[in-house]
Amino acid sequence: MLTLTAPAPGPRPRLHVPWRDFGTLLGLALLMLVFWLAAPGFLTERNLLNILQQSSINACVALGMTLVIVSGGIDLSVGPVAALSAVLSASLMVGGVPPALAVLAGLALGAACGLVNGALICFGGLQPFIVTLGTLSTYRALALIATDGNPVFGVPPAFRAVVNGTVAGLPTAVIVVLVVALLAGLILRRTPFGEYLLAVGGNEEAAHIAGVPIARTKIGAYMLSGLLAALAATILVGRLGAAEPILGNLWELDAIAAAAIGGASLMGGKGSILGTLLGAVILGTMRNGLTLMNVQAFYQLLATGLIILLAMLVDRFARGRA
Amino acid sequence: MSLAMLPAEAPAAPPRLLVQGLTRRFPGVTALGEMSLRVRPGEVHALLGENGAGKSTLMRILSGVLKPDEGTIAVDGEVLSFRSPLAARRAGIAMIHQELQQVPELTVAQNMFLGRSLRRGGLLVDRARQEALAAEALAPLDPAIRPDAPVRSLRVAQRQIVEIARALLDDARIIAMDEPTSSLTPSEFERLAAVIAGLAARGVAIVYVSHKMDEVFRICGRATIMRDGRFVAEVDLAGTTESAVVAMMVGRALAVAPHRSSVRSETVLSVRGLTAGTRVVDASFDLRRGEVLGIAGLIGAGRTELLRLVAGADPRTAGTITVNGRPLARPGPRAAIAAGIGLVPEERKRDGIVPQRSMVANVALPSMPRFAPRFLVRRRRLRAEAARLLAEVNLRPMQIDRPIRLFSGGNQQKGIIARWIAAGTQILLFDEPTRGIDIGAKAEIYGLIERLAAEGRSVIVVSSELPELLRLSDRVLVMRQGRIAAELQRSELSEQAIVAHAVPRSPRTA
């Protein structure tokens, strides 16, 4: 009978082998091997923790970016969203609002910025690239206007102490990002929303006919991206002790690079949370290692560009020509 | 299979196309195993086989897209070494693909000279000369096609003629056509048949790939039948029958099943005055429980549009849809799905499947909330139920974690049917349920549709294949120019009756 019954729990799904993530991990291992040989002091516990801490901001932004990319979109506005939310929460803190509340307000503003992005895309019928290119300037302008272009100083030391502290030997920022990654992985792989993200990015028309709530799914992705950009801003404000309205410049590019190195397809429908984390660490390792080797900034930029292209070429040839 | 196994032939001129021992392996499968094919000049030669028999692989090798592992291809006795699509074109082999490969925004002439434009002074494109040559090539085929018209503005049939004209400009000696009639109206088919006859008269060898047996028997002289990547037989079509050919294709005889009716009394779906612009105008009909309602009509008569309106995939401008006495208030597929309506679209790749996702994920897509009562998806339960339904619809192979794009068309269709059963759908809307599906799987899909009806679900089938409608339908609506032109009861059903109502009347007689 072609009927609905409640079946007994069946066998466990066969474990999905994340070959692509192994590849990213291998790339990271190779990179670390090179720096271990070339840069004295690279492979120390302190420096490795340093790399993780330096990568945490980009990783946080890139996790949100991954969800958006999986849904078939792109979010170019993450940097200005971060600046806007940093300026808001820092101003609130300076004005005497309890830091926890101020941070929540900043996160809410980040999500609201994402809501505007998503709504323009879904109901305005515009391309994600164009919408977020527009809000990239708009949000940045709002941050500059709100502060007259001046940094917000005087963030309470208590707040800074929490953000810059450690939990069980790991920097707080690293712990926060790990928790976020765990949640993002859960969302992408174990919730209907995650399935909808993959479906909308994989084939929007088919998803529409299959009853996937397209608008709600896309808007959700942009809200999460805005939220995580705001969270990254919180970490940065804690680290710097001030909120600059120009903060977050070019964050979108680092985030896209981390997601792409980690295996996300800019065509949508494909992406890996673990891969994005590794991608962010690869970028962080590059910068750290090259700095230890006293490589000039211009050459660091060159090396970063080449490593992205190399990673993409290896990915392309590993998958074979379509 | 060696050439020795082909029927003996007088040793006259070498065949125009001679394929021998052609083999191509992919990881895990031999897509083509020692395949042979022989086509004489001026012959219209059918290449027949089920989906997955290796026809596309052979086509892709012929057009230079794919390299063979072993074997030879000779044109007029000259063995080719294929390195690229360009080399194949230079050797005189042209390919008319099922999905036409044209740039819609460019003109007819620009498309015909794509990648080898005529130059003036070595730099500027000589559009005038291109258009003159294009017009010359088009004239004997369809003089109504203007060389300066954008390809976008042409109908599919005309775009096909453009491709053929382009092949003639290339001095093609062999033209291979892959399902050229899949979206043509009967009169367009007649025109194409005449064009093909004309090409053959000029000595061009035609390789004709189609699933439509009646067409093959009408326009082809001989046929090569393949199965599982191998040569099965070369036959003279005049000396054989359709069922004999089909039996060779599937390796067994297929029984022709009679119609089975499971119509109950209660009405489950009432459509009144459904309208969307001029594409669908004032459509009204009822559907009963257990009924299979066929919808016939020419391409563009509004059949697909009507189905999409009922499924909520497109917005309606007027009219009501009532399911079990409850009108659908909100627009969109989600409201329709909640009311128990599910669409099985014609273009699976475009509208049906999420290609990279697994079979299981594709089945579960509309039912996700049911499998995630508390935020997290209960994956084991989901997988178990999907597996049970996929076994019910006889998915083969039962590798349900494989991406759905790796399955054949028939299996993908079974997956979509399982999807709607999982979602508790009571009214299934099939748009061309067997388009792009092999003959063996076709019978299975028919069986599934009949089973759905027998178990009390209701089905609407839009189809261009009249035998399909005659086999499945309890009742047929014939659409013409956006309207429901006729309703035929089972007792009144015949191909002639359907065609009579489907063909547009000229304005004078209407």
UniProtKB/TrEMBL annotation, chain A:
Subcellular localization, as worded in the UniProt entry: Cell membrane
InterPro entries, alphabetized: ABC_transp_permease
One GO CC term, this protein: plasma membrane
Membrane topology, from the record: Multi-pass membrane protein
One matching Pfam family: BPD_transp_2
Transmembrane segments: 22-43, 55-88, 100-122, 129-147, 167-188, 221-243, 255-285, 297-314
This protein's UniProt keywords: Cell membrane, Membrane, Transmembrane, Transmembrane helix
UniProt main location, coarse: membrane
Gene Ontology terms, MF aspect: transmembrane transporter activity
UniProt KW Zinc-finger keyword: no
Highest rank taxon of the organism: Bacteria
PANTHER family: ABC TRANSPORTER PERMEASE PROTEIN YPHD-RELATED-RELATED (PTHR32196), RIBOSE IMPORT PERMEASE PROTEIN RBSC (PTHR32196:SF72)
Name by which UniProt lists this protein: Ribose ABC transporter permease
Organism: Methylobacterium platani
